[in-house]
Amino acid sequence: MSATTNDTELLAQLKTGSIAAFQHFYIAYRQWLLVTAMTILKNEEEARELVQEFFIDFWQNARYEKIDLTNIQTLKNFLFVSIKNRCLNKIAKDDTRKKRMKEIMLAADYTPPNNKLENNELKQQLENAINLLPERQLLVFRLAYLEHKTRKEIAAAMQISEETVKKQIANALKTLRTYLRKIQL
């Protein structure tokens, strides 16, 4: 039996909502899609996440007939185009986000003219609050917000889990909010 026949049968079974067919589909194509996505994105974690989302979306859409599986000529071509488009959309979204961030970034010494004294005082209060953080929270906070490192980069640099980085950032922000509320009262 040729791959085309197998794919045709697989698509027919997927259309009926067969869990066994989906499991076979997932096992048969997951690695290939992952390699394809990694080739485009150049980031394994993002590729894994994107492929996982693809399978979830595919399963939900195929089950509810939002994808016309009868028009798919070759499954591998369909999968390649789907993953390629998702990767390109992700890249475009990331580029747009970076562009917007660059546009809103002000020079470090920029202060609106009328409130320079007030802004200097707020800046000093914020620095004081940041310096009150426990050592580990302080380091994580500085890496995340002042050096703009990702959770993954921080976790690697500090040899801790990304979940720990997330918790340290959340705790630091909670501490800073509490401190800043107290001084405003």
From TrEMBL:
RNA polymerase sigma-70 region domain sequence ranges: 26-94
Ranges for domain RNA polymerase sigma factor 70 region 4 type come to: 124-176
Tell me the keywords, alphabetical order: Sigma factor, Transcription, Transcription regulation
- SUPFAM superfamilies the UniProt entry points to: Sigma2 domain of RNA polymerase sigma factors, Sigma3 and sigma4 domains of RNA polymerase sigma factors
| Signal peptide positions (record) | none
The family database entries (InterPro entries) matched by this protein are listed as: RNA_pol_sigma-70-like (IPR039425), RNA_pol_sigma-70_dom (IPR014284), RNA_pol_sigma70_bacteroid (IPR014327), RNA_pol_sigma70_r2 (IPR007627), RNA_pol_sigma70_r4_t2 (IPR013249), RNA_pol_sigma_r2 (IPR013325), RNA_pol_sigma_r3/r4-like (IPR013324), WH-like_DNA-bd_sf (IPR036388)
Does the entry feature the keyword Transcription, yes or no? yes
Q: Which family does it belong to?
A: Belongs to the sigma-70 factor family. ECF subfamily.
Q: What PANTHER family would the database entry show?
A: RNA POLYMERASE ECF-TYPE SIGMA FACTO, RNA POLYMERASE SIGMA-70 FACTOR ECF SUBFAMILY
- The name on file for this protein is RNA polymerase sigma-70 factor
Organism (species): Chitinophaga nivalis
